[in-house]
Amino acid sequence: MPRCLDCGNQTSFLSSGIPLGTPWLGQIDSGLAAHFSDGEVRHIENMGVSCETAQDALRRPENYFDTCHHCGSRNIVWP
Fold first, then answer.
1. Most-buried pick from 15, 62, 66, 76 (CB within 10 A)?
2. Using CA atoms, how far apart are residues 73 and 31, in angstroms rounded to an integer?
């Protein structure tokens, strides 16, 4: 499970490499967000990415989620 080294967040992360596909939403700057619990992805919010990309993010979240949703830091570590 990822952890933000700046604020300690371990639950909510964004993918900086995937632009927001639906700009009218405006709340976040990513087309893919994930919520983690008990060491695994519990929920993905897909805002304009393909089903294949979302499935790959579920299988390999460490390749996608690199930004803290709480503080915006990219100072993220994966165990």
1. 15
2. 17
Per residue in 29-79, pLDDT (tens digit) is 677 999 999 989 999 988 778 889 999 999 999 999 999 999 999 999 998
3-class secondary structure, 35: strand
Number of neighbours of residue 47 by Cβ within 10 angstroms? 17
**Residue 68: how many other CB atoms lie within 10 Å:** 24
Distance separating the N- and C-terminal Cα atoms of the chain: 7
Structure tokens at 14: 């964004």
pLDDT at 13: 95
